[in-house]
Specification:
The chain has 2 domains: 192 residues, TIM Barrel; 44 residues, no CATH class. It has 12 helices and 8 strands. Helix 4 packs across helix 5 and helix 8 runs parallel beside helix 9. The longest helix has 16 residues. It has an 8-stranded parallel beta barrel, surrounded by 7 helices. It is an alpha/beta fold. The protein is elongated and about 80 Å long. The structure holds erythose-4-phosphate (E4P).
Length: 240
């Protein structure tokens, strides 16, 4: 499963790229607005930072406006994927942009019927928002399961991009269900790495290492004496 970072913050994106952890980035108008800077240069910089798709959402409500914006975004960088909302106008824009070979991520998907229409319109990705469904006591992951079945039934090539991810279990469940990608905030990406046993284990290893005498910890094997001493200690242990 591909992992995307749901962020427009360059520091977070650079950090995640440095771990080799992300395959792409998704943004939305709220995330871009949080950065408070001119969005075109920001978008270009994000595209140059990450070696994969970067979703940017249109802000028009009508199809013609979305198509214009989508074309302008697509000219900016080959990594751009245009996000269109799952409305009638959004579907019409998706159809037109897809016919021009511009990749579209149909966003704000909350039902299997919407996902079916996104695929029929030619979307490269559909973004079902699992967290927002869970927030209203609906079954976010149930939606992923349904879309998976429907797309498999008709061999649609639209990729399922699980969005509105709130915690690591959303990511694990998305992967279990065979979603194509999941996009998550930086905090969720960090929590995928962390495990208390890893931290405790590392603490223990490093404390034990500190017990070695300084000459034994030297990086350069300058002291043949300490090597010999270590060998002698090793032999003693074996003979005990
Ligand atoms: C997806 O592309 C959206 O940007 C995002 O996942 C929305 O998440 P939220 O529901 O946490 O705002």
């Amino acid at each position: 499963m591909k992992i995307f970072l749901d962020s427009a913050n360059l520091a977070e994106i650079r950090e995640a790229v440095s771990w080799g952890a992300i395959d792409g980035v998704t943004t939305n108008p709220s995330l871009v607005a949080k950065e408070g800077c001119r969005f075109f240069p920001l978008l270009k910089e994000i595209c140059e930072t990450v070696n994969g798709p970067v979703s940017m959402e249109t802000i028009s409500r009508d199809a013609a406006g979305m198509v214009d914006e989508g074309r302008a975004f697509a000219k900016l960088h080959p990594h751009i994927v245009v996000k269109c909302p799952l409305t009638q106008e959004g579907l019409a824009a998706t159809r037109r942009l897809s016919k021009e070979q511009i990749r579209v991520n149909v966003t704000l998907c909350f039902s299997p019927s919407q996902a079916l229409l996104a695929a029929k319109a030619g979307a490269a990705y559909v973004s079902p928002f699992v967290g927002r469904l869970d927030d209203i006591s609906a079954d976010g992951m149930g939606l992923i399961r349904d879309i998976k079945t429907i797309y498999a039934n008709y061999a649609f090539s639209t990729q399922i991009l699980v969005a509105s991810v709130r915690h690591p279990l959303h990511v694990v469940e998305a992967a279990r269900l065979g979603a194509d990608a999941a996009t998550m905030p930086f905090a969720v990406l960090q929590s995928l790495v962390k495990h208390p046993l890893t931290e405790a284990g590392l603490e223990r290893f490093l404390k034990d290492w500190e017990k070695l005498p300084p000459e034994a910890k030297a990086w350069k094997s300058s002291s043949a004496v300490s090597d010999t001493a270590a060998e002698a200690r090793g032999r003693q242990r074996i003979n005990r």
